[in-house]
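Quick question about two entries, pasted in order.
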Amino acid sequence: PHLPSDEQPKEDAREKQPAEGGGDLPGAPVPSPGAGAVGEPAEPPQARTPSREAEADFYCVKWITWKGERTPVIMQSENGPCPLLAIMNILFLQWKASGVKLPPQKEVVTAEELMAHLGDCILSTQPREPSEGLQLNFQQNINDTMTVLPKLSTGLDVNVRFTGVSDFEYTPECIVFDLLNVPLYHGWLVDPQVVQAVGKLSYNQLVEKIITCKQASDSSLVSEGNGPPRRPAACSPGGGWMPCPTPLSPPPGLVAEQFLESTASQLTYHGLCELTAAVREGELSVFFRNNHFSTMIKHKGHLYLLVTDQGFLQEERVVWESLHNVDGDSCFCDTDFHLSHALGKEGATAAPPDHHLQQRQVDQDYMIALSLQQQQGQDPSALSDLELARQLQQEEYQQQQQQ
């Protein structure tokens, strides 16, 4: 999702900006109205123009054939609230279990309608057992959820941990996924080689750690109290081991910063492998990456993301996008996961040209030009190609005017 030009992200008190420690940190989530720890708009609601506000309240519906039934998919415009759409598309795709449907032939849906469907689905999770403890716990969860639901259309506070594909710092927003039994995954895992420097820290904690290490004036704080590095006996006159004045390996703070720089896409190959192994076959889930929430499924051992870009609204053969590369090199598939002929992500599916149709059109244009010359009593060989083209163009223009 793109940040509208008239909105600016506000500073998050929980996440200190890397500029305080000197320099920007690559890999930091970009604030957006769709999601993220710093994804809430800073301007008051009255600062928005009515046209933009009305545009954000309506979302187009794309109807696909999913498991033999016409199923709606909510498409996302430039300012679409991706957390809400990702969850609702899961409920629509598994309508047999959730019971969430839209009227047939519905082409546009409002945010209020989506919220109403989501609220009904959450209320249906009420425990059937008459236990007083369960009922009180459910009532408390509902109260917490009601305060979270409005954020689905503005941004969720999600903070990943680099230790597992389903590890997130617990925030009240996570209760929505828990109540609906919708798995939430990410693929931003730390490689085993640098796991000691990152550890079990979340993204916010890792940023604070890097800033602290950059501001540290003594080497002991930079190396985080791990003791001075040591060098072999060849460095000391008397043999044995002795403290080394310069570290043999980068300090953990520098390693952590290098990790964020090298994983700016917020997806690592180690994370992609762990993600493929963790997601169950046929499981519908939400995938979080770069402050964007996507509907994800695993089909025959491969991961796919639901295509919700409004540019593909009329493309029936573009439904899923493969997730097999950290660099974004993906393929488009239809509803049955067959490879589509879409050549780009701009929404244009270019079919291979039919050379027979092109040649037939050229021959037809030539015959029309010859007929036009004979009607005017001209010798075809006396006219140049340019004059023939002009006559043909004039004839087509006259036919369009008559129509």
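Here is the second entry:
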Amino acid sequence: MALYSAAAAVLAGLERGEGGLKSLVYNSGFPHIRQLYALVSETLRYASVLEKLLDGAALLQAEKKLAPQLAKVLVYDLLFGKGLKCGGRWKALARRHRARLEAELARMKVRHKVSCNEDLLAPEKAVSAAASQVPRYVRVNTLKTCVDDAIDFFKRQGYAYLGKAASVEELKALSGKKFMLDLHLPELLVFPSQTDFHDNLLYTSGHIILQDKASCLPAFLLGPVAGSHVIDACAAPGNKTSHLAAILKNKGQIFAFDVDPKRIATMNTLLTRAGVTGCQLAQQDFLTVDPKDPKYSRVTHILLDPSCSGSGMRLQLLTWSQDVGVQTPGDRSCLAGMVTRGPREDAAPSTERLQALAGFQRRVLNHALSFPALWRLVYSTCSLHQEENEDVVQAVLQDWGSAFRLVTAFPSWPCRGLAAFSGAESCLRASPAETLTHGFFVAVLERCKEGAAAPSSLPAAAKRNSQPGEGTESGAAPKKRKKKKQRVK
């Protein structure tokens, strides 16, 4: 019964806007995360069907003490899943109403002229098709191995290596036990979408990280040179942090922040497994971090992936098995307060909620830009909404005047920012249809000149901390980065 209670609690939390699917699942305390994630994801997928079944069978009217969320997960497993895994009063309740529910399900199939349960999801077929095209991406952890050795390992396990992909179409055509090297990112291997590596030795030993391609873009585009001091502002569960450490070759210093102790604990486990050193974890709200603190006087790079609506991650509800596991509790971009659509997949975040998120994102981005030695920053979200992406970047650039500029991120990337303002095409977007990834947004900002004044819209404390300090790396960083920018292109 614990499974169903936990699943019902997650659904209730989604309805109340208390967080995102992944954050609620991973903070549930339920010991079998993959099992819980699967049940909630599939219940959400069948949400509209389940609501019609509950109405048609009048289950909630007959069982007035039964919460709607619990009813949904029980009926899902009873009719669509692998059968109820509980005893006691809930199993007895399900048995009492099973005949009525099955009869209502049969009537639904007749009305829709379908013969199987999956066909009741016909309106979602287009979404399902897009989700099924997203491959399984495997980032080789260069702190522990190299790409060639990883390829050799998989070949010994019976996988056929097809070389480096030349197009997205080639990745889309992958099937069976075949894999390729990604056409954009040099340490990313690509397998067919349903390939599962959670029991693979390379995964359990930290030699590979299961991370969506879009989620690899922020650290890759930030590209700090070895020896740099870097902040990962909203870091848990740590996939991007471990990627930063690999880029730095464990040489330099990473300051990683997250406000939630459970996510920090998860992150510590991941980073230890990945062989990351030189990373200071702090259970702290990034907005409370003092840019004037001497320990951050050499921070030249910041990766900012704040809480967002998570709209670009919706397809994970349909491909849960790709991302669930201790090492990959999802991309951090929506873990701390991600707003989801809740059990009704057709409901969008309210305008008020989007405005509140955008306001927070603007505050945290302004705060990040106030670090005195900062030279390069990557802002990313897993949102599809312009309010959280281009609009936030435009507002912050206006706040800072000529102090920072947008850099054209990955010019060869096919999907660009929306034309919300002049220069927005410098940003990039990702999507299942165009880039075979989850939905994502990335903007790269660089300091234009030293000594630029803080914008008048910033709090007084942020203004005092916005001037580049004496003896920092901010003046030298652009010279070091010229070659790196060419490599990124």
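Reply: Residues 123-129, 315-347, 456-489 have pLDDT under 50 and may be disordered. Residues 1-122 form one domain. Hope that helps.
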